[in-house]
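pinging the channel bc i need a second pair of eyes. not urgent but kinda urgent?? the chain im working w is below, pasted from the shared doc
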Amino acid sequence: MKIAPGVIKKIEKEAREFFVGSNGCHDWSHVERVRNLALTIGKKEKADLQILEIAALLHDIARKDEISSKKSILSCGKGGRNGGKYFTKI
C-alpha cells in the first residue's frame, strides 16, 4: 500500500499530542523505540514499512485514558477502535 507523501508526518504530529505530559515508560520516547524496532524487524521480514510505522505511532494513543481511569483498558485496542475519530482531519 502506498501512503501519500506527508501523511505519516501528519500522523506523527497528531499522535505526539496524545503524549504531552506523559511520564514513565509510555511517553513519546517509548513510541519512538517501538517505531524503530518495528521498522528494523519489518525490513528483515519485507513488511509494508509505512503500515508498520503508522501502527507504531498509534499503538498507545489511548494510554492516557487507561492511566486516568486507573483500569486496564488495553490502550492499543481502544486506540485501534477509536483511531478514526482522532485523525479525521488527516
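so The chain has five helices and no strands. and The domain at 7-16+24-86 is CATH 1.10.3210.10 (Hypothetical protein af1432). — does that match what u expected or am i reading it wrong
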